[in-house]
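Issue 218. Parser rejects a valid record. Input:
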Amino acid sequence: MNSVGSIANVWFDGADAFAAGTFFSNLTLDVDGALRMQNAIGYLGSVGIGQGRFNVSGNISIYFKDLSVYNKYINDNSFNLAFSVEDTAGNAYIFSMGNVKLESATVTAGGSDQDIMIDATYRGSMDANTLTMLQIDRFAAA
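Output the parser choked on:
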């Protein structure tokens, strides 16, 4: 999959981002379950896998069109973020986060004749409506 032909859509704060004129130049998703090996005397390798806290985070770079995204950071407002990917065979995944907050945000303008961007990091938290932090839906090709 790639970031041109495989990204079917992005939803930002409940709206179709592309239709609303919100465009991303970067969108990452980092998932960490804080898994760890459980070693024991007399065993080669681990005897189990310990689970830790589940963390969802990432980076986004959004073309600056107004203050709405930056104000989410300033006002510490949460939003939802989702995106779908599809392979050439038609198999698709939708990654949804219902409670996301920006941890950092910087408005950058590199110079003359360059675009103004909002570069931010985000972190997902438990969504009270779905009781999930990250939901992944898989759709097989028809």
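Fixed in the parser; the record now loads. The first strand starts at residue 7 and ends at 12.
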